Amino acid sequence: MHAWPASEVPALPGKGRDLRIHDTATGGRVTLDPGPVARIYVCGITPYDATHMGHAATYNAFDLVQRVWLDTKRQVHYVQNVTDVDDPLLERAIRDGKDWVELAEGETALFREDMTALRLLPPKHYIGAVEAIPGIVPLVERLRDAGAAYELEGDVYFSVESDPHFGEVSHYDAAAMKALSAERGGDPERPGKKNPLDPMLWMAAREGEPSWDGASLGRGRPGWHIECVAIALDHLGMGFDVQGGGSDLIFPHHEMGASHAQALTGEYPFAKAYVHAGMVALGGEKMSKSKGNLVFVSKLRRDGVDPAAIRLTLLAHHYRADWEWTDQVLQDAVERLGRWRAAVSRPDGPSADALVEEVREALANDLDAPAALAAVDRWAERQDADGGTDEAAPGLVSRTVDALLGVAL
User: Fold this and answer.
1) pLDDT number for residue 246
2) Rounded distance, CA 107 to CA 217, Å?
3) pLDDT score of 68 more than 90
4) pLDDT (tens digit, 9 = 90+) per residue, 19-66?
5) The domain defined by 305-318+325-405 carries CATH number 1.20.120.640
6) CATH 1.20.120.640, the chain: domain bounds
7) Which residue, 345, 346, 349, 386, shows the most beta carbons closer than 10 Å to its own?
8) What's the sign of the alpha-carbon dihedral 357, 358, 360, 366?
9) Residues of the chain with CATH 3.40.50.620
């Protein structure tokens, strides 16, 4: 599966700072110090209704991570998946009378267009669950053969008790885990399971649903969590720098994925840091496909909204914060974009050397994009009030905003 084209990232004078970021697993801030190649895995979409503003906010956050790393002169090895076969996709295809493959391909193509318009840097490897199945099957077999998984009426389940570190990503208690499992695709009430929290690794073929050859597992399709584990281990290995996604993935997805990988390899941890973006609401409720309260990037683009303004709307909120989409927050971003473009259109201006360092420091400080925007606002205000004589300043501001915030002025 192919990703989307990359926009050029301008080089800035000097060198950026190492990223200090909130790690869900430890509950505190950690300083990431990758080697020459920083490794990040971000969980991708289930392509049946893309791309809403919650998606955009999440991927914007991890785009900032990449840009901070690139500014430190590192390479970035970024991997993202597409869950292109799963119950919600199949249910939507039936509801709409579409072929599930056609639905997945169409929504994935739209997602690529939205990511390109927002100038989000693409992953090096963009992998669909279906194409990953040949690598998933042997992992499930290994877990089963090692006693970390078991069969139940043809399905294969992972035993959470096989990983001594289970629970160390979310730190939720058993009652919260059970409730979230039921809410987010699990089946804690199924009779015969060793532990209600045990997640499915391989679903035996169901009548009328797609299935693949699972060797000794029989025909079926993979569970959600093992998909990401197989892709991450294949392309990044254990102990990569950041596992990312929305806060709704903390449990069960990231908790289970970590346990799958740790049980498979005997190594710990799966990722050095678990980083999660907040949720975006509309009308007082979290945007979700099930509720249908969605604002789509593609719809805004069709209505003539500049993608740079959409991105500035996202950047105006700290990535870990839960916030609400309104017409006003978008209008604020449109006005900010206009002010910035007017400020850099002049032939000279106040020195921007300090601005570069302010934006770097803000982003290194747990991706504080609102502080970075405020720094650019202050420079634009000085430009509007007093101007300046530095002919290089407007260009340096433009390159800084482009390189570190992904916004083209």
Assistant:
1) 97
2) 30
3) yes
4) 999 999 999 999 999 999 999 999 999 999 889 999 999 999 999 999
5) yes
6) 305-318+325-405
7) 349
8) positive
9) 20-286
110, 16, 25, 124: which is closest to 71 by C-alpha? 16
Question: In sequence order, which residues have a C-beta less than 8 Å from that of residue 251 and are 6 or more positions away?
Answer: 169, 170, 172, 176, 177, 180, 181, 184
- Tokens, residue 405: 């915030």
CA distance 45 to 108: 8
Measured in degrees and rounded to the nearest 5, phi and psi for residue 49 equal -170, 75
The token duo for 122 is 């693409």
Looking at this protein, which amino acid is placed at residue 200? M
158-201 pLDDT, tens per residue? 999 999 999 999 999 999 999 999 999 999 999 999 999 999 99
- CA dist., res. 362 & res. 110, Å (int): 32
Which helix (H) or strand (E) segment is 19 a member of? none
The rounded distance, in Å, linking the Cα atoms of 64 and 255 is: 24
Instruction: Work out the burial of residue 36: count CB atoms within 10 Å of its CB; fewer than 13 is exposed, 13-18 middle, 19 or more buried.
Output: exposed
Tokens at 333, concatenated: 């971003």
Q: Tell me the HSE value of 356 on the side-chain side, using a 13 A CA sphere.
A: 22
- Sequence letter at residue 367: L
Q: Residue 285's pLDDT band (boundaries 50, 70, 90)?
A: confident
Q: What CATH number does the domain located at 20-286 have? A: 3.40.50.620
